[in-house]
Design goal:
heterodimer, B: alpha/beta, 34% helix, 20% strand, globular
């Protein structure tokens, strides 16, 4: 495999913790929120997922790049993660699907990366202290300067990254079936694929679109997409959603789930270190079945009394600004909210990623449930 | 759903003796199941014929039966115990096949026993080739094309009609580890392998299928609960592509080369497979082949039960598959069971790991000269190692050194020869790869020869070129990290560690690698394990190590285990207070010891592996508990030991030690022939032979061993026709107690590990037993033994000779423990921790029943190897038979070993000249038992002279029909054949091979034959009674307090 060039570098966290390694991607430094993902596959899908905008991803699996990169694995048109932190970067091109080596590709994409880091020690640090700001620097950058740059980087709380990833103009994708109109806060290709597999016509609107603009496209179903950042910074989208509920069926995934919940009056909160991986068990409280899910979120939805965790496997019902809402899905790791359905209006959303990409396909059937709601 | 309350008593079947394809992993899974089911409040009845298992420890079950795993004894046990349910999925293929027979014969239905875990139909859909294919077709999953074949003619016709294409794979139905299968490249090979496969299959059926040789091979470990929740525990990628049995392949977890969409596709298919087959609860293993170019996926097979791979997956991820499978079988769902390791999260998740696991097989071809050592779809390895590292290279290098090879692979060949050798999968393949890369042979040539994925080749190349050293500019340091099922996302509670080289974090004087070992303030004792199973060092030693860990823990200290064998109970994180999954080399052990700062280290229980490290550990200032290292050296050193025996006035056969071949010849004149020759410091009689003449000795020296200063050669006078006796004794340095005296059934000259033996001894008088006791005591005390000692004696013409003494745990410790009802390894461990023998409870009298141990030898695995017992050990496992008298116990042991003696029929007798007088008597006994006697002309003449009717049959050299034709034709029910010389030319070899292939019991010693005759006579009295250990030993060991006590509840007299 092509050699990985090794230049000493380090990762500096906002609490002063330093991890040495070798920088191996683009020449520039990178700043952002340092998070970790526990999936053992799907590195390219992850870095090209718009939800990672503003973040440096630590992969807990130690070998990253084993099967190279390919166009087919892109979740958007570019890399959104600001940097990548790895134990051992691989630049192999031997897999049949590989079009390029991973490290070469990161460099071409201008993405900073560091390898040789004791990522397990880093993850344990983040697990105990929470996700925090950090930066990838080469050894020539003085630590004092690096520390200043890290502390100068805005935090994730209150950050609106959706503006950076939303399309500037509407995008239309033809189809013979129901018309799904997405408020595109950074929609993943895998979501589009699931809708298109079901023959949907798709319109992706800038997330700042008004209710009138949404309604003017005559949607059968409004889709609230995944996306980056803090949902509380997106009040302009939440307002639109609030006006759409009851008028059109509304469904959402991840950030879209948080926006729907905020729209009906629930609050969101920042998880200590988020859920990022492909092995989280989610229980469907209606069927009692457990699905292994793909997850990528740093914020979660609280109950009406501010409850962050729910100890019983019961589909509790909350009264909201739009009538009764039912808890439909629960995370069995930390018992946080994973899904919600309105009883009095046609709306539902999930916190996890039924489209996978990367991750298990257990919940793909959820798109059928979404489309059953299409008017 | 909570636990089922409608069942109370559960029958669990073990996997029997350790054989190739079915090893210690089923002790691990069965022991877990016993513990879980009892914790859940069920009564557990266990049946397993293998005494060297933790699962057959009487504390683990309510009722423990060491009985043959055959429908007859099982029905007796079911009648007696009346279990509500049978859990057949944790005892390997043996338990599954037995459960199927019990169903087919209506036993389960008659006694109202429910199959739990997997029902009959699910077992059938997974195990029957045709049913499995139909099931996969219905689920829309592709399998390689295939054809069920029940005769050689059918296969030939299929080839002619184009239904079968070459190369093709042949897989017999219902066999372990693909036994009897293979790959056919030509029409001749097709006919031959199909014929063998039909013979190996209990239902005379093989599958001939599309060859996917060279495709990538993957396995997924799947679990399902009664709510239809399915999770994948682990993916495993075989570095050896399709064509090599997964048990013989080097494998890696998780899969390394699969992009996410392909992995998810495999995951989806695995889930479809378990649902379609209908395994309701528990674990299954699904194997796939993936075309590396097109990405096309085919399903190869599924095991509807816990398997070798699931043991590996459990150790690789920390997710205890067998334990969870047992809970699912009694009604729990995955989300109701907590993850042991995090405690905070449920078992309904998929483990994610942040390290790389490499498993490597361990072979024993050197034990079977003449056997074909090419790796095929028919498993041949006898053990395995696993290693954990943070990178592939790290784990690969650790696995390579964990194998503990006796000698490096022979790489003396040209580049072209090397590439040719690489193309044929072999035991040395990965050593040859190292050599090829070191020589700079082109990557593409190596890939073309091996078909190994280029990703792995690139990694192995880097490792080969680095010589095992990390990059020079690296400032890496060693630290211990945890196995936690979740890549550190949650706090782990379970102390299961591996070492890794990592870059320190932090700055200045705080710059350090994070250590995860959580060591409390309690003193600890490190127990060094036995490493990979191999012939001569098997599960018996793991059994002792587990007992040592239990004892250390009970003493109030932390038990710390170091081992690298993923099959075993010792590497279950529940067995010790801290488990270090590490290679057993001096450096690796010292790294652990440096952190543990233990009170002491125990090297007596793991066989040769830890003993080899003893001197180095002592030199490094480590405190070794128990018998001093010097005593071990003294016992191994012929000169010093001989002097000790002379000082004590104890007889031993004449011996000598040679440091060169010339010296060996010179010494042989003093020692006298016949003599036994072998290298020093070996276990299991490696390269050990009996030489009857100077010519034979010269031939041995040419063939075998380089004798030099470092590797002395031992020569002993061989005492012919002596009775061999094995003694296990305990000593605290001041007093010594003989725990068990075992008399070998075979005469001297058969390796003690391969010989059947009986406890108490059958033909030794009181006076001789006293002499044995006294001699044992004086040797043990003179050596300063603290712990166990095993001494082998020979009794010849009324004289007692010491053959050898080993001041450590021997392989007979589990057998003796179960035969006398006292845990020898535990007691020995207490002595090592400072207790005195007087405080221990040992039965004062020998037991009032007879226990027979029989060895199980894998001749049926090694085509071409002679099925003959000798001084070199070849058995992989053992069974035990218990009865009121010797013949019945012997018959049980034979049946348990898979060589059930016939009750009538035809016995073929062919013996060496010196055995002829005894053979005529034997023939007359078989005649009295209504057997027809068949013999070749020489033997027939002697027999007829005694007035016994005999049917004469031609020797092979006399043309057909001859004895081999008779055996193949199914006319012979028992073969008695003593050797007249080994090697392919002798008739005996052909006779024994034919018997092994046909599955006809074959006795190769006169004493064995005599025991067989007695056993057959005894069996005429009806089926022997079954016995539970709890009835035989009503006194059981009290938990935790280190003393024995009578437990009224447990005694059922």
């Amino acid at each position: 495999m092509p050699e990985v060039e090794r230049r000493a570098g380090y990762l500096l966290l906002e609490d002063g913790r330093r991890f040495d390694g070798f920088v191996c991607g683009a020449d520039s430094a990178a700043l952002g929120e340092v998070v970790f993902n526990t999936s053992m596959t799907g590195y390219q899908e992850s870095v090209s997922d718009p939800s990672y905008a503003g973040q440096l991803i630590t992969f807990t699996y130690p070998l990253i790049g084993n099967y190279g990169v390919s166009q087919a694995a892109m979740e958007s048109d570019r890399v959104h993660a600001r940097g990548v932190i790895m134990r051992e970067a691989k630049n192999a091109e031997s897999a049949a699907t590989a079009e390029m080596g991973w490290v070469d590709w990161l460099r071409d994409c201008g993405v900073a990366a560091i390898e040789g880091v004791d990522t397990r020690a880093l993850v344990r640090h983040l697990r105990d202290r929470g996700a925090m700001r950090g930066g990838i620097f080469d050894h020539e950058t003085a630590e004092g300067e690096a520390a200043d740059r890290v502390s100068g980087e805005p935090g994730m709380a209150g950050a609106d990254f959706a503006r950076e990833v939303t399309p500037s103009e509407p995008v239309e994708l033809p189809g013979a079936g129901p018309h799904v109109v997405a408020l595109d806060t950074g929609i993943k290709q895998s979501i589009l694929k699931e809708f298109r597999k079901r023959d949907c016509r798709l319109t992706l609107l800038p997330c700042s679109s008004s209710v009138a603009e949404v309604l003017s496209t005559d949607p059968d179903l409004v889709f609230l997409a995944n996306g980056p950042g803090d949902p509380s910074a997106l009040e302009y989208v939440t307002g639109t959603v609030r006006d759409l509920i009851g008028r059109k069926p509304v469904v959402g995934i991840c950030l879209g789930h948080q926006l729907l919940c905020r729209a009906v009056g629930l609050e969101t909160f920042k998880l200590p270190f988020g859920h990022r991986g492909a092995n989280h068990p989610v229980k469907d409280l209606e069927t009692g079945r457990i699905e292994i899910t793909s997850q990528n979120h740093g914020f979660a939805v609280a109950g009406p009394g501010g409850e962050e965790r729910f100890e019983q496997d019961d589909p509790v019902v909350w009264s909201t600004d739009f009538g009764d809402a039912e808890l439909t899905h629960l995370n069995l790791y930390d018992r946080t909210v994973e899904g919600l359905r309105l009883r009095d209006a046609s709306a539902m959303a999930v916190q996890y990623h039924p489209e996978a990409g990367p991750g298990p396909h257990d919940a793909r059937h959820l798109f059928d449930r979404f489309l059953e709601m299409a008017s | 759903m909570p636990r089922r309350d409608d069942i109370e008593k559960i029958l669990l079947i073990g996997s029997g003796p350790i054989v190739i394809g079915q090893a210690a992993e089923f002790d691990y899974s069965g022991a877990q199941a016993c513990k879980v089911l009892r914790e859940e409040g069920y009564e557990v009845v266990l049946v397993n014929s293998n005494p060297a298992t933790i699962m057959t420890d009487p504390e683990l079950s309510d009722r423990t039966y060491l009985e043959p795993l055959l429908p007859g004894p099982l029905e007796q046990i079911i009648e007696r115990e009346r279990p509500d349910a049978l859990l057949p999925t944790l005892g390997g293929q043996t338990a599954l096949n037995l459960a199927k027979s019990l169903h087919d014969e209506g036993v389960l239905q008659r006694h109202g026993v429910e199959l739990i875990g997997a029902d009959y139909d699910a077992i059938h859909r997974a195990e029957d080739r045709e049913a499995f294919r139909e099931t996969m077709d219905a689920a829309g999953l592709r399998m390689p094309w295939s054809k069920i074949i029940t005769s050689v003619g059918e296969a030939e016709a299929g080839l002619a009609e184009g239904e079968i294409k070459l190369p093709a794979i042949i897989r017999p139905a219902f066999t372990l580890g693909g036994q009897g299968g293979g790959v056919a490249y030509s029409e001749t090979e097709l006919a031959q392998i199909v014929s063998e496969g039909l013979a190996a299959s209990p239902i005379t059926q093989v599958l001939v299928e599309e060859s996917v040789i060279g495709w990538g091979e993957y396995e997924l470990e799947v679990m399902r609960d009664c709510n239809d929740n399915v999770v994948i525990i682990c993916s495993i990628e075989n570095i050896d592509p399709m064509g090599v049995h997964t048990g013989d392949s080097v494998t890696v977890a998780p899969a390394q080369t699969l992009p996410d969409p392909v992995y998810q596709d495999l995951r989806d298919q695995a889930i479809k497979v378990i649902r379609a087959v209908g395994v309701e609860t528990g674990g299954s293993n699904v194997q796939f082949a993936v075309n590396p170019d097109s990405g096309e996926i085919v399903v190869i097979e599924m095991n509807p039960r816990v398997s070798r791979s699931s043991a590996l997956a459990s150790k690789a991820t920390g997710f205890p598959i067998a334990k969870i499978a047992a809970k699912l079988a009694v009604g729990y769902t995955l989300d109701e069971i907590p993850n042991d390791i995090t405690r905070a999260t449920p078992a309904s998740f998929e483990p994610t790991i942040d390290y790389v696991v490499t498993k490597m097989p361990r072979f024993a071809f050197e034990k079977f000269p003449g056997a074909d050592s090419t790796l095929t779809t028919h498993m041949k390895s006898v053990g395995e190692v696993m290693a954990i590292g943070r990178t592939f290279r790290e784990s690969y290098a650790k696995a390579m050194r964990s194998r503990e090879l006796d000698s490096p692979a022979d790489t003396d060949c040209t580049d072209d020869e090397l590439v040719d050798r690489l193309a044929i999968p072999s035991a040395e393949r990965f050593d040859l790869l190292d050599e090829a890369f070191s020589r700079g042979i082109d990557d593409s040539r190596i890939h073309a020869a091996t078909m190994i994925d280029p990703w792995f080749l690139a990694e192995i190349k880097e490792e080969a070129l680095s010589g095992g050293a990390p990059d020079a500019d690296d400032d890496l340091a060693l630290a211990f990290k945890s196995v936690d099922t979740c890549a550190a996302e949650f706090e782990a509670e379970t102390p299961y560690y591996y070492s890794a080289l990592e870059r320190p974090a932090g700055r200045g004087s705080d710059r350090a690698v994070e250590e995860e070992v959580r060591r409390g303030s309690r003193a600890s004792v490190v127990i060094l394990g036995a490493g990979p199973n191999r012939i001569g060092q098997g599960i018996e030693f793991d059994y002792c190590c587990v007992h040592a860990a239990q004892t250390v823990h009970e003493s109030g200290r932390d038990a710390v285990m170091i081992n690298c064998n993923p099959e075993t109970v010792s590497t279950d994180y529940d067995t010790s207070d801290r488990l270090y999954f590490e290679p057993l080399t001096l450096d690796d052990a010292l790294a652990v010891i440096e952190r543990e700062k233990p009170e002491g280290v125990i090297v007596q229980f793991g066989g040769q592996t830890p003993l080899r490290l003893a001197r180095g550990l002592e030199d490094a200032g480590v405190n070794l508990l128990g018998t001093p290292v010097d005593a071990i050296d003294l016992a191994e050193d012929r000169g010093r030991f001989g002097a000790l025996l002379r000082r004590l006035d104890i007889a031993h056969p004449p011996y000598g030690t040679a440091l060169s071949a010339e010296e060996a010849v010179a010494i042989s004149e003093d020692v006298g022939f016949p003599l036994l020759v072998r290298p020093s410091y070996v276990l299991g009689g490696r390269a050990m032979e009996i030489c009857y003449s100077p010519e034979a000795l010269s031939s041995y020296l040419e063939r075998n061993v380089k004798a030099d200063q470092e590797h002395p050669l031992l020569l002993d006078r061989f005492l012919e026709n002596a009775v061999e006796v094995d003694v296990d004794a305990l000593c605290d340095g001041e007093t010594c107690v003989v725990a068990g005296v075992m008399q070998h059934v075979e005469e001297a000259g058969i390796h003690s590990g391969d010989s059947a033996c009986v406890l108490p001894p059958m033909s030794l008088g009181e006076e001789m037993l006293d002499r044995i006791s006294e001699t044992t005591e004086s040797i043990a005390l003179e050596l300063g033994v603290i712990g166990l000692i095993n001494i082998q004696f020979a009794v010849s013409n009324g004289d007692l000779y010491v053959i050898e003494a080993n001041p450590r745990a021997s392989r007979t410790v589990p057998f003796v423990s179960k035969a006398i009802g006292a845990p020898l390894a535990k007691i020995a461990c207490r002595l090592m921790l400072g207790e005195s023998l007087a405080d221990q409870s040992l039965p004062a009298e020998p037991p009032g029943y007879v226990s027979v141990k029989e060895a199980v030898v894998p001749f049926n695995r090694f085509d071409g190897a002679d099925a003959l017992l000798g001084p070199e050990m070849r058995s992989t496992g053992e069974v035990m038979g218990v009865a009121d008298d010797f013949p019945t116990a012997f018959g049980k042991a034979q049946a348990a070993a898979g060589a059930a003696l016939p009750v009538d029929g035809t016995v073929f007798i062919s013996v060496t000249d010196t055995d002829k007088p005894a053979a005529t008597q034997l023939a007359s006994r078989f005649h009295d038992l209504d057997f027809e006697i068949l013999a070749t002309p020489g033997t027939a003449q002697s027999i007829r002279a005694m007035g016994v009717p005999v049917r004469e049959i031609s020797k092979i050299s006399q043309g057909s029909p001859n004895v081999v034709d008779c055996i193949r034709g199914g006319e012979v029910d028992l073969v008695i054949n003593t050797p007249t010389g080994s090697g392919a030319r002798a008739d005996g070899y052909a006779i024994r091979s034919a018997a092994v292939r046909k599955g006809v019991p074959c006795v190769t010693t006169m004493t064995g034959a005599s025991a067989a005759a007695r056993a057959i006579f005894a069996s005429r009295g009806g089926a022997p009674a079954v016995h539970a250990l709890q009835d035989l030993h009503p006194v059981t060991e009290g938990p935790g307090d280190g003393t024995a006590m009578v437990s009224a509840e447990d005694s059922d007299a």
